[in-house]
Amino acid sequence: MKCPSCRIKAINFITWAQGLSAFKTNCSNCNTALKANALVYVILLFTLIATFSFFPYVEGVVGYLGLSDINSKLKVFVLIPVILLGAALAWFFGGYKISKKQSYSK
Ligand SMILES: [Zn+2]
């Protein structure tokens, strides 16, 4: 996602996808304090809804893939593509806005 201050990519996808940097970070170029815009929250909310609505089908997908014998915790991994798709949508369509609370630590 681009930094609204310097117009350069503020963060790489790997760092972004690892957690809280998706919502609050400092630009890696100009160190402006940034927070996620509303679109990111909207997309992530829809991703959560999609993930939960997909839960009843997990057993079916696991059965279809012939993985019925695997540990039930591992079955949740079939949901990862849904989550990744949501993250990718948030990455491409979402963005940052400048946080009012500036960080001066370099
Ligand atoms: Zn910047």
Automatic annotation (TrEMBL):
Transmembrane portions of the chain: 38-58, 78-96
Annotated keywords: Membrane, Transmembrane, Transmembrane helix
Protein name: DUF983 domain-containing protein
